[in-house]
Design brief:
Elements (H helix, E strand, L loop, with lengths): L8 H27 L5 H17 L17 H15 L18
Helix pairs in contact: 1-2, 1-3
C-alpha cells in the first residue's frame, strides 16, 4: 500500500531533509566502522543522539534561530557531522592558513 503524498511542498521538503539527515548520519557511522577509525565517546554519542532526535521529532534542534525552518540539522550539527565524516575518511580537517609575512622593503 502506498503512502499518501505530503499535503504541501513544505512538508515534502521537510521529509526529504529528514531522510537526508538520517542517511548522512548512517553514512558517517558506516564509514568510520569500515575504515576502522575509532570515534571518541563524544562523537559516537553525538551520532546516536542526533539520529534519535531526528527520528522522533523530525529535526535535531529546538531553537529556530540555530537553523533553517525546513532543515533537520542545525548549522553547527551539520559542521560537526562533516568533521566526523572527514575523520572517518582520513581527510585532514580545517582550513590551511599561511602565516602573515612582512613585505620586503624596496631598495
Amino acid at each position: 500500500m502506498r503512502k499518501k503524498p505530503p499535503a504541501s511542498p513544505f512538508e515534502a521538503r521537510k521529509a526529504a531533509a529528514r531522510r537526508a539527515a538520517l542517511n548522512a548520519l548512517k553514512r558517517a557511522r558506516r564509514a568510520a566502522d569500515k575504515a576502522g577509525v575509532t570515534l571518541s565517546d563524544w562523537e559516537g554519542e553525538f551520532l546516536s543522539e542526533v539520529s534519535d532526535r531526528v527520528k522522533t521529532y523530525g529535526r535535531a534542534f529546538g531553537d529556530p534561530e540555530k537553523g533553517a525552518a525546513g532543515e533537520a540539522l542545525s548549522i553547527m550539527q551539520a559542521v560537526k557531522l562533516k568533521e566526523i565524516t572527514a575523520k572517518a575518511k582520513g581527510e585532514k580537517t580545517g582550513m590551511r592558513r599561511t602565516p602573515l609575512r612582512r613585505r620586503k622593503a624596496e631598495d
